[in-house]
């Protein structure tokens, strides 16, 4: 079994183990804290995805080491999404772009998380090849998983 396969299987196992039924926030304070933590994970995901998108589009030079580092971070953060989206905050008036579908469709949302984990693990391995075309294709794969999730679970 190669490294990529092991990484994907490990990521999927961890996500499955941490994907539990949503807990409803117990108070507005609880909902606000859960929302803040959830948004922090997604902010970090975006800060690591931004340079990758710029490289894929040719706006900045492709740097395989930066791609590998950011892909590793994205993969690690993807493993946290289930934990930080577990608290259903949809019943509270908190400032958030998260749609209630996150908690209404937990299996579908978990599939999206797994897709990000798999795509980011693939990008980590592809970055090691220094094959610019393959790296750009793998970046696009990660971007597609992000965009698909945004389309279904994030308000415009």
What is shown here, in short?
The chain has 156 residues and is mostly helical. The protein has helices at 3-18, 28-56, 64-84, 101-104, 106-127, 132-153, and strands at residues 23-24, 87-88.
Explain the layout of strands and helices:
Layout: H1 3-18, E1 23-24, H2 28-56, H3 64-84, E2 87-88, H4 101-104, H5 106-127, H6 132-153
Parallel strand pairs: 1-2
Helix pairs in contact: 1-3, 1-5, 2-3, 2-6, 3-5, 5-6
- The strand count comes to 2
Shape: elongated
Low-confidence stretches: none
Q: Under the CATH scheme, which class?
A: Mainly Alpha
CATH architecture designation: Up-down Bundle
Let me know the average pLDDT: 90
- Under CATH, the topology can be stated as Four Helix Bundle (Hemerythrin (Met), subunit A)
Q: Helical region count?
A: 6
Q: Work out the helicity level.
A: over 70%
* CATH superfamily annotation: Cytochrome c/b562
How far apart, in Å, are the first and last alpha carbons?
41 Å
SS class: mainly alpha
Radius of gyration: 16 Å
How do the helices and strands follow one another from N- to C-terminus? HEHHEHHH
Strand order of the largest sheet: 1-2
Strand percentage: under 5%
Largest sheet, described in full? Answer: 2 strands, parallel
Q: Any idea how many domains?
A: 1
What key phrases describe this protein's structure?
elongated, single chain, Four Helix Bundle (Hemerythrin (Met), subunit A), 73% helix, two-stranded parallel ribbon, mainly alpha, 156 residues
């Amino acid at each position: 079994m190669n490294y990529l396969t092991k990484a994907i299987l490990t990521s999927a196992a961890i996500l499955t183990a941490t994907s539990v039924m949503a807990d409803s926030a117990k108070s507005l304070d609880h909902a606000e804290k859960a929302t803040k933590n959830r948004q922090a994970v997604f902010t970090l995901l975006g800060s690591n995805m931004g340079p990758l998108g710029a490289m894929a589009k040719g706006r900045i030079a492709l740097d395989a080491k930066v791609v590998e580092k950011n892909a590793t971070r994205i993969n690690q953060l993807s493993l946290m999404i289930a934990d930080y989206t577990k608290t259903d905050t949809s019943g509270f008036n908190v400032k958030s772009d998260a749609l209630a579908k996150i908690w209404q469709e937990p299996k579908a949302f978990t599939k999206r998380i797994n897709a990000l984990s798999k795509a980011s693990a693939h990008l980590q391995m592809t970055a090691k090849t220094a094959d610019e075309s393959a790296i750009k294709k793998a970046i696009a794969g990660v971007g597609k998983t992000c965009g698909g999730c945004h389309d279904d679970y994030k308000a415009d």
